[in-house]
């Protein structure tokens, strides 16, 4: 398994896009990574847009970025909530400063915008937040996946295979 010993944070909040959380989590686990679901509260069950539950193992305040290799931000409506937590923005900033992989799909770009890390970056997202991404200083493209250094971005659920191929490849050093 290519990612044995790798630790990844997966952010969770109510109204996450079910596939955009669970597909990446399961793919990373298949590769041997440990993925810690992390929410505002530990041991809380959050519900996706389509009713799929996700129980957090940790609270944002209990996670230390230097103990992890990467972070995933799912889409859906959860990013609009996630970007309001100072602890989430701090995690994103620290991962960015350390050049650790940051995966964002669909509306997850909102979290990176609020963390103020997109200036000069090349990204994609759901077209619905294209203007937000551009206004944050990013160069936006309508592509299935874009890798700009340590930031891996994708548009929507049909792009998940390409997104996870890129994210897993980045973590595996390919």
UniProtKB/TrEMBL annotation:
Transmembrane segments: none annotated. It holds the Pfam family DJ-1_PfpI. InterPro entries: C56_PfpI-like (IPR006286), Class_I_gatase-like (IPR029062), DJ-1/PfpI (IPR002818). It comes from the Bacteria. Keywords: Glutamine amidotransferase. Residues 7-168 form the DJ-1/PfpI domain. Belongs to the peptidase C56 family. This is Type 1 glutamine amidotransferase domain-containing protein.
């Amino acid at each position: 398994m290519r990612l044995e010993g790798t630790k990844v944070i997966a952010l969770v909040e109510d109204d996450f896009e079910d596939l955009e959380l669970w597909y990446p989590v399961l793919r990373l686990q298949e590769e041997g990574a440990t993925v810690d679901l992390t929410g505002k509260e530990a041991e809380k069950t959050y519900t996706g847009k389509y009713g799929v539950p996700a129980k957090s193992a940790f609270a944002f305040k209990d996670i230390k970025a230097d103990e992890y290799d990467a972070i995933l931000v799912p889409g859906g409506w959860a990013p609009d909530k996630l970007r309001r937590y100072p602890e989430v923005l701090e995690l994103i900033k620290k991962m960015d400063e350390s050049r650790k992989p940051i995966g964002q799909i669909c509306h997850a770009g909102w979290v990176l915008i609020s963390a103020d890390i997109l200036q000069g970056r090349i990204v994609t997202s759901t077209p619905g937040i294209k203007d937000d991404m551009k206004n944050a200083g990013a160069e936006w493209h309508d592509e299935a996946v874009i890798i700009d250094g340590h930031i891996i971005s994708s548009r929507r659920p049909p792009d998940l295979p390409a997104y996870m191929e890129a994210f897993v490849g980045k973590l595996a050093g390919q």
